[in-house]
Amino acid sequence: MAEPRTSIHGLWSSRWAFILAATGAAVGLGNIWKFPYIAGQNGGGAFVIVYLICIAFIGLPLLMTEIMIGRMGRQNPSNSMGTLAVEANVSRHWHWVGLITVITGALILSYYSVIAGWAVDYVFQSAAGHFTDGTVAHINGLFTSLISSPTRLLFWHSCVMGATMGVVAFGVEKGLERAVKYLFPTMLVLLLLIVAYSIDTGYFSQGVNFLFHMNFHALKPSSVLVAMGHAFFTLSIATGSIMMYGAYLPAEASIPKAAAFIVIADTLVALVAGLAIFPIVFAHGLQPGAGPGLIFKSLPIAFGHMPFGEVFATIFFVMLVFAAFTSAISLLEPSVAWLIENMHMTRFKATGIAGGIIWFVGLGTVFSFNIGDKITFLGKNFFDSLDYLTANIMLPLSGLLIALFAAWRLKKATTLNELNFKNGIYYKSWRIVLGVVAPIGISLVFLGAIGLL
Ligand code: TRP
User: Fold this and answer.
1) What is the DSSP letter of 89?
2) Measuring from atom 6 of ligand 1, which residue has the nearest CA?
3) Helices (DSSP H) in 55-148: which residue ranges?
4) Most CB contacts within 10 A, which of 61, 99, 239, 288?
5) Cβ–Cβ < 8 Å for 153, 114
6) What is the mean pLDDT of residues 418-444?
7) How many CA atoms lie within 13 A of 433 on its CB side?
8) How far apart are CA 430 and CA 435, in angstroms?
9) Interval 199-237: pLDDT, tens
10) What's the CA-to-centroid distance between 184 and ligand 1, angstroms?
11) 447 CA to middle of ligand 1, Å?
12) C-alpha angle 109/230/333, rounded to 5°?
């Protein structure tokens, strides 16, 4: 192999800096907001098992692969894949796959920002004590009045996008990284606190049962696709970010170990969030299938009945905003890096253009819950359609192509050296999973869900 490439943007200071940044990107609204509500909509237990299987057999190997491609290419995802393809004497067209991941990230950000805006609104509502002793009807009403107000949603969406663009335009400050170090553990502690409240409701076993009881006949092919799509979404796979972060990873760090850490941390946060939420849902007669508003309707009830609930609720929603914000930054970065590298723009201009377009697309989500709720595509509103398109179609398909590329197009000697597994059997399993098991699995799930099987 030629001399190792270097990244023009520098490297992480250590393996742990990378792990922290990547875990920060992985843990976000997906874990605390999305996982519980889709588990609820898809019947719980069996869905969770499918999700865990997808995480272990598709998510983990793909996460390793993306970090590996990023580190070998040391550029934005599109250029990295193109360069590696040329070096392996295969078509440069593989760079399109990298470009699709960048576009998917931008589309996800357009609605991610709107939902993060809900969390910002809830910070102020908690601080003002709106949840104190709230009844189910009262708390439901607060949520409905938020999402039915286009101006409130637009205001918060614009604030979140503005802040994200601010950070990306001026480069990620050291302060943010330092803040994540403290905020992330605090978030975990607060989540455990809500679990304690949940146990206290007396409905904890119902929650556990809902999450882990395997009721396989409730599982539709479409639920399997949702579980798989979420495995991609929650690990930030196929959105460009992980490849981008991998590009800054020091050469000596072990990729399999870093990937395993990220996967375990991310999965634990999602399961703990589920254990925190479902007992509250059952204790107060809420519907587990309530949809995107689930945590905004259930958690305030718990907080409203705890001593110092306003304080805890405020801190909790601040954490949620922070988890979302660190993710939003890394969703914007690949588009910006692409514009800088390929359109030769300044970082400032690139951020303005990418952020402006994403903000505009976000308006579709803002209006999906109110004045535009009658505008539907195949029966889904704009937000649901965009979520379906990105999480359930674009993520799995680009994941499939990334897997095929790494297993069948890159040279074996190169990937063997880069992953540096201690034991040959791990490397063999990685290649078989990536080259055969994952592609067949993804294709079957996909075809089954769109009704072609
Ligand atoms: N993983 C994030 C979450 O669970 C969402 C996400 C998807 C993401 N792709 C990303 C975050 C890329 C940052 C970068 O909420």
Assistant:
1) T
2) 236
3) 60-73, 77-87, 95-127, 136-147
4) 239
5) yes
6) 86
7) 20
8) 8
9) 888 889 999 998 888 877 778 888 888 898 899 889 999
10) 15
11) 25
12) 30
CA 13 → CA 16, 24, 174, 184, distances in Å?
A: 8, 16, 12, 19
Per the document, the length of the chain is: 453
Kindly give the distance from the C-alpha atom of residue 190 to the centroid of ligand 1, in angstroms, as a whole number.
Answer: 21
pLDDT, tens digit, 9 for 90 and up, residues 287-339: 888 888 888 988 888 888 877 778 878 888 888 888 888 888 888 888 988 89
CA of 431 to the centre of ligand 1 (A): 25
363-367, Cβ contacts within 8 angstroms, sequence gap of 24 or more: 363/154, 363/157, 364/110, 365/110, 365/111, 365/114, 365/157, 366/114, 366/150, 366/153, 366/154, 366/157, 367/150
Q: Which atom of ligand 1 is nearest to the CA of 25?
A: 13
Measured in angstroms, how far is the CA atom of residue 328 from the centroid of ligand 1? 8
Facing residues of 380 across strands?
Answer: 377
Contact residues for 194 (Cβ-Cβ < 8 A; gap 6+): 276, 277, 280, 299, 302, 316
pTM for the model = 0.88
Taking the C-alpha atoms of residue 422 and residue 399, their distance in angstroms, rounded to an integer, is 26
Ligand 1 mutation pick, 327, 358, 386, 392, max ligand atoms within 8 A of CB: 327
Mark out the alpha helices in 284-387 (DSSP H runs): 294-304, 309-343, 347-368, 382-387
CA distance 157 to 430: 40
Give the percent of the chain with pLDDT over 90.
32
Query: What's the pLDDT tens digit per position in 334-362?
Result: 898 889 888 888 888 999 999 999 999 99
Contact 360, 128 (CB under 8 A): no
Question: Ligand 1: residues whose CB is within 6 Å?
Answer: 25-26, 28-31, 105, 108, 233-234, 236, 239, 241, 327, 330-331
**Tokens 């760090």 sit at which residue?**
253
Q: What is the mean pLDDT of the segment spanning 167-183?
A: 67
